[in-house]
Description:
mainly alpha
Amino acid sequence: MTTSTVVLALAVFGASAVEMVEALTIVTAAGVTRGWRSALEGTMVAVVVLAALVIAVGVPLARLVPINVLRVVIGALLLVLGLDWLRKAVLRASGHKAVHDEDAIFAKTVADLSTGSATEAASAPAGSWRHGRRDATGFTVAFKGVFLEGMEVVLIVITLGASSGHLALASGAAGCAAVVVCVVGYLVARQLSEVPENAMKLAVGIMLTSFGVFWVGEGSGLHWPGSDLMILVLVGVFALTAFVLSLAMRRVRPSPRAAATGSVPSK
Length: 267
């Protein structure tokens, strides 16, 4: 495998793992409060829809669009996506944005879903609410959580896979991430805060930004020194930039609201 394919596989795996941890948090909360049958059914339907999107959009892009045009357009999209991840990671590392806390998100989701569950359980026939009939709320919450988080995975798989000609590799890396996250989630139950998600987001943001710059250059006719090895140089440059910015931002006092640790952080 070349340097670019290795970095590509790592980028897709890392990005997919981050999004799937967030989806797992929502599915677990839906399963605990509304019943596992509906939560798992919603998850499976969302996965099927997302896989269909990869096949319907990714394959035509890889086969029909000229590779240089694809790399410029997709490189620009990756730059936007990667820089957004980097911006949030730097803000979190410097204390200007609350750290993404999966335990807090889990607790909030459970509280929201539990609001009406007691009334529903009391009015439903004995034994039917959690174990018998399907629960529409649990299905919908799980479906929306997996689908919305998975859309970013689909975007990354299609952009990285189609523009590099390795759509199958990108899809496989995303599939491996799904298996790993599900296994780890099963083993550690709700201890999702142990996953170093914020560090993973920083690493993925660096790799996506590096790929974006590399492919915009290649698609525009630029011959990078060292060919694929230049990706590692770009990774190093953006990693150093993020580190320096984080240190500089720590000298700037964050606002009390941004620095609050008790609130559930946004994505």
